[in-house]
Write a structure and sequence with these properties.
Blueprint lengths: L8 H10 L4 H16 L4 H15 L1 H4 L5 H17 L8 E4 L7 H7 L5 E5 L2 H13 L8 E4 L13 E6 L8 H14 E13 L5 E3 L3 E4 L1 H10 L3 E4 L11 E6 L49
Parallel strand pairs: 1-2, 1-4, 2-3, 4-5, 5-7
Antiparallel strand pairs: 5-9, 6-7, 8-9
Helix pairs in contact: 3-7
The structure holds S-adenosylmethionine (SAM).
GO molecular function: methyltransferase activity
Keywords: Lipid metabolism, Methyltransferase, S-adenosyl-L-methionine, Transferase
Protein name: SAM-dependent methyltransferase
Length: 300
């Protein structure tokens, strides 16, 4: 969670003084993004171009992981949390912004054959996702991977999904994209289905950086869900994990209340201290968000 405005000049100057070695990389990113913004029609078109450029260097970095080890750990964190909070093999699941299947490979492996659907605005990252399927021996699980141009889900039938998941997608989305999703997601969720998403939370002024990273107040997103007839619940126990985004679960108002195994059930280290999702003792965690573009963020 962030209480200061990372887009402010003051923050950027302080950041640059603390990490001068990052200035050239930031300037390169700034110029690239400025050019991409000029040459694209709208946010989706722009972000697709950002992904194309990032994936051409490394698909793991493009989804925000600085190393293969972090890529594996971030996927595992998402999987473990969702499995503790209700995911079952017989569920049909949609992952919005599935990227190169950082977590998707674990969902695909766990779910019954044919029950995983991954959508993304970036054809380039979906090509990389196919490589992940092959590398992890998941072809026989017959996952569905689909490029999309918006979040209206027009090609998907009513009440299709038990679980919808979007990790580190709304952290890159302007509010109108999130609203489009809320407008349509209820139609494709089963009556007792749920939709978990992460977002970059601020308790200060809402802001964005380079049109890549967007910071929202929790109440903004809860009110937006409510406006579209959905109930949002802030997932407190996600806050205890080694990740700097926050998580909200959205359900139909009549659905059963949100439940899940809480921290009490978590594994302990030799000294009896609870471990985090990546298996580290909680008090050894560093304040770290493992994904994103530099200086302006460090961070997806
Ligand atoms: C930071 S990556 C995270 C990928 C994946 N969720 C994970 O955790 O590894 C964000 C992904 O969301 C996709 N994305 C961004 N905006 C989207 C949108 N409006 N609809 C669908 N996908 C989107 C991007 O192309 C990218 O693959």
């Amino acid at each position: 969670m962030h209480s200061h405005n990372r887009a402010s000049i003051g923050h950027q100057i302080k950041y640059a003084l603390r990490r001068p070695q990052r200035i050239p990389r930031h300037v390169r990113r700034l110029s690239r993004n400025a050019w991409l913004r000029l040459s694209t029609r709208d946010h989706i078109d722009y972000y697709r171009a950002v992904m194309k450029s990032d994936v051409s260097r490394s698909s793991e970095r493009a989804v925000g992981s600085k190393s293969h080890g972090r890529w594996l750990a971030l996927g595992q964190m998402q999987f473990d949390y969702l499995e503790r909070h209700g995911l079952r093999p017989e569920h049909r699941m949609l992952e919005i912004g599935c990227g190169n299947l950082r977590a998707g490979r674990l969902f695909i492996d766990y779910l019954d054959t044919g029950n995983y659907y991954g959508i993304d605005i970036s054809p380039d990252v979906l090509m990389a996702a196919q490589g992940t399927l092959v590398d992890h021996g998941l072809r026989d699980k017959l996952p569905h991977l689909m490029p999309v141009k918006d979040l209206r889900f027009a090609a998907l039938p009513d009440e299709m999904f038990d679980v919808v998941h979007a990790h580190s997608v709304f952290s890159h989305s302007p509010l109108h994209v999130i609203e489009e999703c809320f407008q349509h997601i209820g139609r494709i969720m089963k009556p007792d289905g749920w939709f978990d998403f992460t977002f970059d939370r601020t308790e200060g002024k809402e802001h964005q950086i380079l049109r890549e990273d967007f910071y929202y107040r929790t109440e903004t997103l809860l009110a937006l869900a409510d406006k579209h007839g959905l109930r949002g619940t802030f997932m407190d126990d996600w806050e205890r994990l080694r990740h700097r985004q926050s998580k909200i679960r959205v359900t139909h108002p009549g659905a059963a209340p949100v439940t899940g195994r809480a921290a009490a059930g978590r594994p302990k280290d030799e000294a009896g201290r609870p471990k985090d999702e990546a298996g580290r003792p909680k008090d050894e965690r560093r304040e770290q968000r493992p994904e994103a573009s530099q200086m302006a963020q460090d961070l997806r």
